[in-house]
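Changelog note: in this version the structure field was regenerated for every chain. One regenerated record is shown below for reference.
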Amino acid sequence: MAKLLRKGSASAFVLLVALALASPSSAQVFTGRVDVTVADSTGAMLPGATVELTGPQNLSKPTDTLGVAHFLDLTPGTYQAKVTLSGFSDYLNKEVYVVAGGAVPLRVQLSIAGVSTQVNVTAESPTIDPKRTGTSTTVSLEELQNVPSGRDPWVVMQTVPGIIVDRVNVGGSESGQQSGYQAKGASGGDATWNLDGVPITDMAATGATPTYWDFDMFQEMNVTTGGSDLTSPTGGVHLALVLKSGSNVPHGSSRIYFENKSMQSNNMPVDLANALGSPNGKGNRTNQYADYGFEVGGPILKDRLWGWGSIGKTDVRILTIKQTPDRTILNNYSAKVTAQISNALRGNFTYYTGRKSKFGRSAGPQRPPETTWDQGTLGQGFFKGEANYVAGNNLFLTARVSHYPWGFFLTPEGGLNTNVYIDDGGVVHGSYLDYRSERPMNTVAGEGSYFLGKHELKFGFSWRKTEVNSITAWPGNKSITFFNEYPDLIVEVDADHLLSARAKYISGWVGDTITAGRLTANLGVRFDHQTDSALPVTSPAVTFGNFGTFLPKITAPGVNNALVYNSATPRASVSYALDESRKTLLRGSYALFASQLGNGSSGFVSAAQYRYIAFDAVDLNGNKVADANEIDYNSLEYWVGFDLANPGRVDKSINTIGDYSVPKTHELIVGVDRELMRNFGVSAAFTYRRMVDFNWDPRTGLRSPAYQQVNTFQGSGLPDGSSFSVPVFGVPKSALSADALAGGHERVTHDGYHQRFLGAEVSATKRLSNRWMARFGFSSNKHQEFFDDPAKAIQDPTPGPTSPNVNGGLVVVQSGGSGKSGIYQLLPLYQFIATGMYQAPAGIDLGFNFNSRQGFGQPWFRSRVPSPGDNFNANKTVLVTDVGDHRLPAVKTLDVRVGKAFRVQRASFNLDLDVFNVFNSGTVLGRTYDLRLTGPTGFNQVLEIVNPRIARIGVRFNF
């Protein structure tokens, strides 16, 4: 640093200022880079050589004193590299592949002039990246367009080794829905979404995306599952979506894809169809699918100003097992303008909006039409400005600013005046809750690189503010009636829940990449300051028939910086090329990651909680809902969110903040990469993760020693023929403190508890050349939880479906997406994926997409098991067998494409026929696991199978 100061350069001053700010971008890099090293035939470095890159961007610069020229912030795509130097023959490479977040180490050897006038190189664009720190997959434009898929990001993610997705999308049947997914033991809440370098993760539902997509907008997708560099804040899955852009060469495309029920088979067994009440003997199926739109880009002023835009629409109409309609409409619009303001300054503006309308959300065997939602979008889209500045050969700076006002609503089709009841089969009737949420976000970020000899100093900053303002309201008289072996009932009365919170995320990072011969090392540290503040809210009173006010109106004050996460997370990695040609690379990395603080987490200490109370009742008049005169007010089942002795209290929350921490993940990865042949590379990696410092919200001051066994739940007749005997625990009133007796919880570190992930993966990638391309991947995963001190780590010892309380047991994650709450994900012991395309003679294109994984868990349990003497719960949900002992069948799907391409110079016209679920498998995806439920959707009944085989036709035009 002192050396920089002695130089007195402006660039050094800028670097020092940036380091002082110490605030890096939370965004994953969405551009690529090329590092060109020029030497003569003896290996001596050649400064002053002119390097020209042409392609999506046209750039030129000389090599520095070390014979190196760096090209950063490159739009992904294929470039041509030309190197010239007086006295030497020219060098030309027409196939330099640049991907998002990747670095191309192009090593150029120039011959003495006279040997030849130009050297054409076609075999020296490497497939392995020595600067890569972890495990990531880049899905190219060629794969996105030529491999059959459901055409959404979640379908792409399930082709990445290690990522497990809860849905099976057959020909677009699940498109327009957010899939639940996880990888390598990371919490789904630690996943991030990135659009053209800007973080857009929905922080009010951490890990989710705020929008949906037009597949043809993308230049490529980059998916990182481990070893993320300093630009990524967490250890979750990081998805970087790269939009197309304009260039000097006009380009564009249009498409239409179509399928309907006449192009579909039937894979539903007749007895199952009859049992679930299918009117036509068929199961879940696609009624109609249409996807159409266009995109175009090109020069506005050649070499100075470029534009690009797209319009797309996807219309998905599906039918549930009872042939209930569910329709999703996605309208997407995007535009990008890029300007080369000067040789050193480049800027762009991006606009994107994705509007989703859905009619019949969550339709299924247990959600008839009147209980489904109609969904709509709030807000007007995503706005982003960016500037890139290059100062000589050494300093590269980028700044971004974005504004994204958005939100959504869910309106029940049964209306807001109808009471809700749920029968003994778990089927909802009447209507459902109403939900509205606005979630605007704003981001300012910057990052840069400074080259100093063999060092590349990297730094950055990010400031982000998000808000959430939501209301949840049940219809009718605000009561929900649950059958409890009808005519016995449980009635729950819920106050409207309002959540208003503001979060701020300030981040900074600084690191150094050191290159010494075959060795590349990355060292750095990241700092994050995350806060979430509760804002004032008013929750109205709830009156119930002649009983009067159940829950009073309350106005809760705000709580500034109610939760604060501060973290410093170091990262280090090293890679070493085993041979001079750098075809084999050993690599290893250590990273410490911190979890994301969700916007709205501060609601935990607001005086206005989600308030509800439940009593026993008996249906005396046969209307299937609990009326005021049918309730036994002396039989309290449970209450949540308020002090039973003082329900109108607002001077403080019933919940408290204790000694909490920032959840962290320690990660070690070792791997090897090998370039087997031109455009074909393989990788293998082993990942170890230890997740610690979890936060949890147990009852205030209560842990397992305070609980006593109050019952034993016994029975027989499980699907495997076994019987069970499970202890049930409860906490007596005498064991409770005053705060616990009020029903409060505490936010504290989950002492005596940690999780561990062990995984191995192998992948192979063949870029499109010699008429074919392919990706293959295999992963094996084991995700366990450990109770090092059960007296501290367990509250209620009663085992539940997502909390089995087994030391060393598998971690269970229950999906919470639209219509998928009954899926219990266990990471599979094996997963295999393969995708590819072959350009056969006569313009025939053949493509395939194969996915196979072990099935998810079947946690057989019984809800509402009596727990006498428990001060909080009269009934418990009790797990009766180990979740990992019984898995659903393995899921295997194969999709194929046969296409015909007509090409005239740069233009092509494609006719595609895709067939999904070729073998028409009817693999079971979900059952009813609750022993209490009866009727057509009762215990062990199949609720969902893979959608049947369907064909899709497509027409594409590209130039």
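Spot check on this record: The radius of gyration is 29 Å. Helices lie at 2-7, 10-21, 141-146, 153-157, 270-275, 738-741, 790-793.
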